[in-house]
C-alpha cells in the first residue's frame, strides 16, 4: 500500500492522471490506514445494453481502494468507498459522469464491490460498474461522514 503511494500517487497527481485520498489515524497522523484513487475514463458499451451498444460514456475509474491489513473488516473500506462515491457525485453535478468503474484486483475485491451494488461487466468479471442512478442508495448511512 505504502509503496504505491510513495512511488506513484504523487507522480500521478502532478500529471493530473489520478487523485488519491488517504485515511490516517487521528491520534497518529503519520499512520496510513487506507486510501483510494480516482481517474477520469471513458467506457465503451459493446453489447451490454442494446440502446447503448457501441457508445462510449464518461466514467470515473476507482483505480485503487485498500485498507491496512490491521484494520480490515472494521468499516474503513466501506467508508472510503462511500467517500469516493460522494466525490464522484459532486463531480457529476459539474461535468458529464455517467457511472463509476472499479478495477478489482482479486475475486474477493470484486465481491466487496458487488456487496455495494456494483455489477461485473460481462466481458471482464474483475471490472465492475455502478451507474449514477444507483449512487444515492450506496451513499446513505455514512458513519461520521458529512456529504461533500
Ligand atoms: C476489500 C477491502 C477494501 C475491504 O475493506 P474493509 O475495511 O475490510 O471493509 P469494511 O469493513 O468497511 O466492510 C464494508 C462492508 O463490505 C463487506 N465486505 C468487506 N470485504 C468484503 C469482501 N471481500 N467481500 C464481500 N463483502 C465484503 C463487509 O462485510 C461490510 O458489509 P456491511 O456494510 O453489510 O456490514 C479490504 O479488504 C482490502 O483493502 N483488501 C485488499 C485490497 C483490495 O482487495 N482492494 C479492493 C479494490 S482493488
UniProtKB/TrEMBL annotation:
Protein known as: N-acetyltransferase domain-containing protein
| Keywords noted in UniProt | Acyltransferase, Repressor, Toxin-antitoxin system, Transferase
Per the record, what are the reactions this protein catalyses?
Answer: glycyl-tRNA(Gly) + acetyl-CoA = N-acetylglycyl-tRNA(Gly) + CoA + H(+)
**Any one GO MF annotation of this record:** acyltransferase activity, transferring groups other than amino-acyl groups
Q: Which domain of life is it from?
A: Bacteria
Kindly indicate whether the keyword Secreted belongs to this entry.
no
> Cross-referenced InterPro entries, in alphabetical order?
Acyl_CoA_acyltransferase, GNAT_dom
Q: Name one Pfam family in it.
A: Acetyltransf_7
UniProt organism field: Cupriavidus nantongensis
Q: Which SUPFAM superfamilies match?
A: Acyl-CoA N-acyltransferases (Nat) (SSF55729)
Chain ranges of the N-acetyltransferase domain: 1-137
What the entry lists under Gene3D superfamilies is as follows: 3.40.630.30
* Keyword Acyltransferase tagged: yes
